[in-house]
Design a protein that fits this description.
2 domains; four-stranded mixed β-sheet; Aspartate Aminotransferase, domain 2; seven-stranded mixed β-sheet; Aspartate Aminotransferase, domain 1
């Protein structure tokens, strides 16, 4: 199998390092083997880089691309709105229409607010919860990511030594320079452990519990049977606001998010990524009495670019397509086939593995075949070996995240999956010998 080379990407990154800090505008794009790619364009399920390599893409922009790269209906909707102007510091019909679609699709969405990133709407949710309850403490969980700000970038990927007790984890800052006082009112607990959460909420001093309803930032972990239902009940009984961070799961696992699939409705939920197929849009949705804390004169939530007309047009166009259901049926078929195929190839080559998650966002772990049910389970995998596999695959024309996550889109058809499995077979044989 002919191998890609990336000399132009390497040269461009060397240039970028002299003008951008680290050569990137997000730390999560750096440190990729054999080099961070510099992309010229995207087409359906493919990326074409500056070296001219045509690569099957399972990054999907780290989650936003659900319809495939450059879907005509979304691009055309954005262009039509752009012809009317860029931004007005006023409302446009496009944002009302987009909000109506979110309200129509998402179980918890009695009210909606738009912003530019998941990080922003998570902070709005915290402010609402504290205002509504009069409490200060927020509970989050090990391995869950809710944005890069100081009060929540905690215990995202700590070492076991730093994490401490499994039932009473330490609160571990994930970056130098963070304000230690910002973590004062954040409590970190293990996820999928209902009894521990129930005991903490019984103190009745917690404003909100925030979680990914399925841990898609860590190993695509599903909640245990009855866990989300138990969390919902405990939050209701103790007057605690339940927040689902659906920035990944929302509009990727279904048009109604993970809350629709799993049958548990939170009080508030954050959305982003796939909501607009790559346009910078995030949303906070939830109960009317909580969201109406943000009416003027109460909880402050602002942003010059919130509800940007062009991105709102893209949001509506994306949600209209997703609501039809065809995209999810394609992803279900191809994702299941790909998950099964990868697992079979690895087993055939005597590589212990665990492939788990949803068809549209799943995770591949090497070195363990046991179910991964929480963050600490994920540490049992051989991450260095997987990084080697990912590097071997991209040389052969398949790009998947080095942390093990695979994102699919409606553009991943039979031909793409066939080619992917051939590359996985060759990469395992050549790269994991």
């Amino acid at each position: 199998m002919a191998l890609n080379t990336f000399e132009k990407s390497k040269a461009a990154m060397a240039r970028g390092g002299k003008i951008l800090a680290g050569g990137v505008n997000s730390n999560f794009r750096a440190g990729v083997t054999p080099t961070p790619l510099v992309i010229d364009r995207g087409e359906g399920a493919y990326l074409i880089d500056v070296d001219g390599n045509k690569i099957i893409d399972y990054y999907m922009a780290m989650g936003p691309i659900i319809l495939g790269h450059n879907p005509p209906t979304v691009i055309e909707a954005a262009k039509r709105q752009l012809d009317k102007g860029i931004i007005f510091a006023s409302q446009v019909e496009a944002e009302f229409e987009a909000a109506e679609w979110v309200q129509k699709l998402v179980p918890c969405a009695e009210r909606v607010r738009f912003a530019g990133s998941g990080t922003e709407v998570v902070q709005a949710a915290f402010r609402i919860a504290r205002a509504a309850t009069g409490r200060q403490i927020i509970v989050k969980f090990e391995g869950h990511y809710h944005g890069w700000l100081d009060n929540v970038l905690l215990s995202v990927a700590p070492s076991l030594a730093a994490a401490g007790s499994a039932t009473a984890p330490n609160t571990v800052a994930a970056s130098p320079g963070m304000d230690p006082m910002a973590a004062k009112n954040m409590v970190v607990l293990p996820w999928n452990d209902l009894a521990t959460l129930q005991a903490r909420l019984a103190k009745r001093d917690v404003a909100a519990v925030i979680m990914e309803p399925a841990m898609c930032n860590t190993s695509a972990i599903h909640p245990k049977a009855g866990y989300l239902e138990g969390v919902r009940k405990a939050c209701t009984e103790t007057g605690t606001v339940l927040i689902f961070d659906e920035v990944i799961t929302g509009f990727r696992v279904s048009a109604g998010g993970a809350q629709k699939v799993l049958g548990v409705t939170p009080d508030l939920a954050s959305f982003g990524k796939a909501i607009a197929n790559g346009f910078p849009v995030a949303a906070l949705a939830g109960r009317a009495d909580l969201m109406d804390q943000m009416v003027p004169g109460k909880v402050v939530h602002g942003g010059t670019y919130n509800g940007h007309p062009v991105t709102m047009a893209a949001t509506t166009a994306t949600l209209v397509e997703l609501a039809k259901g065809d995209v999810y049926r394609k992803i279900e078929k191809q994702g299941r086939r790909l998950m099964d195929g990868i697992g079979t190839i690895l087993r055939d080559h005597q590589v212990p593995n665990r492939v788990q998650g949803f068809p549209g966002i799943f995770h591949v772990a090497l070195g363990t075949s046991e179910p991964i049910t929480d963050y600490r389970d994920s540490l049992k995998s051989d991450k260095a070996r997987y990084v080697k596999l990912a590097g071997t695959m991209v040389e052969r024309g398949v790009r998947a995240l080095e942390r093990g996550a695979w994102f699919l889109s409606g553009a991943h058809d039979d031909e793409v999956i066939d080619r992917t499995l051939a590359v996985v077979e060759d990469s395992v044989r050549e790269g994991l010998r």
